[in-house]
Design a protein that fits this description.
Blueprint lengths: L2 H15 L4 E2 L1 H11 L5 E4 L2 E4 L19 E2 L1 H15 L12 H6 L7 H10 L3 H9 L22 E2 L1 H8 L3 H10 L5 E2 L6 E4 L18
Parallel strand pairs: 1-4
Antiparallel strand pairs: 2-3, 5-7, 6-7
Helix pairs in contact: 1-2, 7-8
């Protein structure tokens, strides 16, 4: 499991433990810290975050199979920002290459919630936060998938990663669309893997109505 997927799974567990119907930014931040932690301690630059002090049972491993939690609009925004941050590292990166450090970097500009509390308690600024994240160990490079031949017709059924890449969003954002029923999906018979019809991707798109320029 890639650490970004771990972060999302940990965030789902936090939301469920708190009895929330959806994941908020605080849960995503806790999940991201848990993904880079060892024995409940997340070391980020000069700061040491004890997950127990933050209300996290670090010994609990998430059960993704039973997760039925949606993503809040704020979390979708943060995940999309993490996707942009990952893409800024090089054109060869794909949505499946997003790591926990990308998610953490997306919180640099947040001033409210848990991130706001940590900034006040530890004197964190946007620049010092990003500098600390830059020193995290970089995950091994994942080669980009080969480009299909020009004469090969596009497949009708896509994996979540392929569908997310097609829409230009993070794969966890797409999974949130599936969980909420916003995007139809199919499950392979007898397996947990899901597929999305290429034609159904239009279900999450809506026409943009231009704003009138006249007062």
């Amino acid at each position: 499991m890639r650490d970004a997927e771990q972060a999302a799974a940990f965030a789902i567990t936090q939301a469920k433990n708190r009895g929330q119907a959806e994941i908020g930014p605080d849960e995503l931040l806790l999940g991201s810290l848990q993904a880079i932690s060892q024995f409940g301690i997340a070391q980020l630059g000069p700061w040491t975050f004890d997950l127990e002090d933050l209300g996290v049972d670090w010994r609990e491993y998430p059960d993704k199979a039973s997760a039925k939690v949606a993503y809040s609009h704020a979390v979708v925004r943060l995940m999309d920002l993490a996707y942009k941050i990952a893409r800024s590292e090089g054109p060869e990166l794909r949505s499946s290459s997003i790591r926990a450090d990308h998610l953490l970097a997306a919180f640099a500009g947040e001033e409210t919630g848990l991130m706001g509390e940590l900034k006040q308690r530890f004197g964190i600024t946007s620049s010092t936060w990003r500098a600390a994240i830059a020193h995290l160990a970089v995950a091994p490079h994942i080669p980009a998938p080969a480009t299909p031949p020009e004469n090969q017709a596009p497949r009708d059924f896509l994996t979540p990663e392929e569908a997310a890449e097609t829409l230009g969003i993070h794969v966890q954002t797409l999974r949130g669309y599936v969980r909420s029923g916003k995007l139809p999906a199919l499950r392979l018979a007898g397996e947990r893997a899901i597929r999305i019809r290429r034609a159904d991707l239009e279900a999450v798109l809506e026409p943009l109505v231009p704003t009138s320029l006249t007062p």
